[in-house]
Amino acid sequence: MTSIRSKNVSSKRQPESISTSIQLFERLVQRRDWLIAATASAASIAFPSAKPLTAAEPISCVSSFGRSIGQPKFGLVTYLWGKDMDLSTVIKACQHAGMGGVELRTEHKHAVEPALSAMERKTVRKKFEDSGIELIGYGSNCEFHSPKPEVLAENIEQCKKYIQLMHDCGGSGVKVKPNGFAPNVPNEKTIEQIGKALNELAAYGEGFGQQIRLEVHGKNTSQLSVVRDIFKVADHKNAAVCWNCNGEDLMEPGIEANFKMVRERFGETLHARELDSKDYPYQELMNMLIASHYAGWVLLEARADPTDKFVAMKQQREIFDEMIRIAMKQPTQPKQTK
């Protein structure tokens, strides 16, 4: 089944340090291919009926529900650290920090909004293509829980405008969110309404190459059992979960069980707060991401207000790199397929 993938970054000549990193990466990929071939050979002996792995299998691929397989990447959500930066500054900050991509939030200073003209959209696209930083997608405030049909319709139509915007600017998806249950309405009805809205937008977004990413958000709707039930309705392959590192993740039956509850519907993005905070088990999360072969984006959506955002972003990227290094030493699970 066709999956929505992120756009390729610019092929322009990179600085020497980046070229060196690329060469190292290529050597690692070659070694990976040899290991995959050896593993496939051994598996064919132990499990003759199993589908073999091949060296031609890409390092990053997705299941029919957009679930990434491989190693995660680190990027930025412009809420809150980038909210007062213009677009050029956002890109420079990501370059300085070694972050490969960014999700642009609506209503921030960088002002990438549906009001942009066709020429302005081309300018945004070119800025990202020239920079080597990937425009991962858009952070909208669209929500679909309202019991008022006209409000629901407005949010769906607004999201379609964001889909068109990201298509024109070179992004790969739009983040939406549940925002609680409507009062005096059965929860099951609200869950069904959100799921149906996601299906409509996922079908629409597929035509523009844009994944619809539901952030785990809102009072009670951020419980993973609720998100699971939403995605029982939202069965379109282009609708995906955006894990959000909430306190609810730690509720019974625990983070591992909650993670597994929705993992197969993960899309290309998940959101995290500062990785060195003590109120969330980020190393455990990284371990689970690596063990389940997640190759999407871990996007920093920070809460603090450091004086020097450039320095703070680089520090967070360094923490991420170390956490991934530790996680890579953990046992991994077999790759899952649909």
Q: What would you say this structure looks like, in words?
A:
- The chain has 338 residues and is an alpha/beta fold.
- The chain contains nine helices and ten strands.
- It has two domains: 16-57; 62-327, TIM Barrel.
- The strands form two sheets. The chain has an eight-stranded parallel sheet.
- Residues 1-26 and 28-69 have low confidence and may be disordered.
Going by helix content, strand content and strand pairing, the class is: alpha/beta
Largest sheet: 8 strands, parallel
| Count of beta strands | 10
Outline? globular
With helices defined by DSSP (H or I, 4 residues minimum), what is the helix count?
9
**CATH level 1 class label of the largest domain:** Alpha Beta
Low-confidence spans: 1-26, 28-69
Radius of gyration: 20 Å
Strand content: 5-15%
> Any guess at the CATH architecture of the largest domain?
Alpha-Beta Barrel
Encode the helix/strand succession as letters. Answer: HEEEHEHEHEHEHEHEHEH
Which range best describes the helical content: under 10%, 10-25%, 25-40%, 40-55%, 55-70% or over 70%? 40-55%
Number of domains: 2
- Give the strand order, joined by hyphens, for the main sheet: 8-7-6-5-4-3-10-9
